[in-house]
């Protein structure tokens, strides 16, 4: 009987120990998210130099809890659901407009921002956030065509319509994005990337469906990897993704078609329910420093909105028209505007039908 009692006591002690251990672990996990010296950063994948985050923590003491998303819509849904209180995130232009109009963003306290004079005025006061009430410019770029110079010449692809040529059968990779792929199709028909006409969208969907014989794959971030490995001759993708692929394969080049394209702007914003706003301001200010912005631009491969950082970049990078386009090219570019739920769904449905038609 004594042995039984001792065994029971031992079991109880073990259970209590496990409960206590779990409580300590849970509290530790809670501190990671809610502790005073943390920053919960929700960003696109591979969209900041990890060495900068290490430097930021060393300089400020803020530990960065870093999570990633692969689309504006995925980020928007997570923020709106409110399950996790992120302190800083990175929406594109039209999504800043959407999130601010729905009350999901905190107005910026300009007294807590430093280094804003380093931001090029061209990227300030954009239509999606007049007066930069909610957003600080981060990176910008274009949608264009990445191609293998040994297999394709620039004149063969200098307008979007040329992608429909039979000579490119199963040679094209497309980025997995409804707005971008339907947008390029609309441009090829002389329409706006923000078209909200039912007949125009139907016509674009019809034309896009005829591109499928030329499409080898519709992919996301891995497009740059496949192109660098020579898996396709042509890729419709973003300028920064193209830059990363070109760094891996010298046979690749990038251009913006002469009939125009999308110019996008990614921005740092603070969600309304952020618990560590001081940490968010600290990282924004850290990234506004020219030397940090330069390092970040060279790692990420996208064009910087920081004029101080731009001045520090190598001359060959600053003069590359594929990534820092001429005024003429810039004049031909369009910025996405916010769609309501109906039109977002219309575009998504049209693109989904295209993808499943293979």
Automatic annotation (TrEMBL):
GO BP annotations listed: polyamine transport
- Do the record's keywords include ATP-binding? no
**Which Pfam family is one of this chain's hits?**
SBP_bac_8
Which cellular compartments is it found in?
Periplasm
Instruction: Identify the main location.
Output: periplasm
Residues bound to spermidine are 94
Write the record's keywords in alphabetical order, separated by commas: Periplasm, Signal, Transport
Q: Which domain of life is it from?
A: Bacteria
Query: Which molecular-function annotations from GO does this UniProt entry contain?
Result: polyamine binding
Q: Which GO terms describe its cellular component?
A: periplasmic space
Q: Which PANTHER family match?
A: SPERMIDINE/PUTRESCINE-BINDING PERIPLASMIC PROTEIN, SPERMIDINE_PUTRESCINE-BINDING PERIPLASMIC PROTEIN
Name used for this protein in its record: Spermidine/putrescine-binding periplasmic protein
């Amino acid at each position: 009987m004594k042995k039984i009692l001792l065994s029971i006591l031992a079991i109880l002690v073990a259970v209590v120990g496990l409960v206590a251990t779990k409580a300590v672990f849970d509290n530790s996990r809670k501190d990671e998210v809610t502790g005073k010296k943390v920053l919960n950063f929700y960003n696109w994948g591979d969209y900041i130099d990890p060495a900068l985050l290490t430097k930021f923590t060393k300089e400020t003491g803020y530990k960065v809890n870093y999570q990633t998303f692969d689309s504006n819509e995925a980020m928007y849904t997570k923020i709106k659901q409110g399950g996790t209180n992120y302190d800083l995130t990175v929406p594109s232009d039209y999504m800043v407009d959407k999130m601010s109009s729905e009350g999901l963003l905190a107005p910026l306290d300009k007294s807590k921002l430093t280094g804003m004079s380093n931001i090029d005025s061209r990227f300030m006061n954009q239509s999606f956030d007049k007066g930069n009430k909610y957003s600080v410019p981060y990176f910008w770029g274009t949608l264009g065509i990445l191609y293998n110079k040994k297999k394709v010449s620039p004149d063969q692809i200098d307008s979007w319509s040329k992608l429909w040529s039979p000579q490119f059968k199963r040679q094209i990779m497309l980025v997995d994005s409804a707005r971008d792929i339907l947008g390029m199709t609309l441009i090829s028909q002389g329409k706006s990337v923000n078209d909200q006409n039912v007949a125009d969208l139907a016509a674009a969907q019809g034309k896009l469906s005829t591109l499928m014989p030329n499409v080898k794959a519709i992919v996301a971030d891995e497009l740059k990897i496949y192109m660098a490995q020579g898996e396709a001759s042509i890729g419709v993708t973003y300028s920064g993704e193209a830059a990363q692929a070109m760094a891996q394969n010298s046979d690749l080049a990038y251009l913006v078609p002469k009939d125009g394209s999308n110019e996008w702007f990614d921005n740092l914003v603070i969600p309304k329910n952020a618990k560590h706003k001081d940490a968010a301001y600290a990282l924004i200010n850290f990234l506004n420093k020219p030397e940090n912005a330069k390092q970040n631009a060279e790692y990420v491969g996208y064009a910087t909105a920081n004029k101080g950082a731009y001045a520090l970049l190598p001359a060959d990078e600053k003069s590359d028209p594929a990534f820092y386009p001429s005024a003429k090219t810039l004049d031909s570019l369009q910025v996405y505007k916010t769609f309501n739920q109906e039109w977002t769904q219309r575009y998504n449905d049209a693109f989904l039908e295209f993808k499943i038609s293979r």
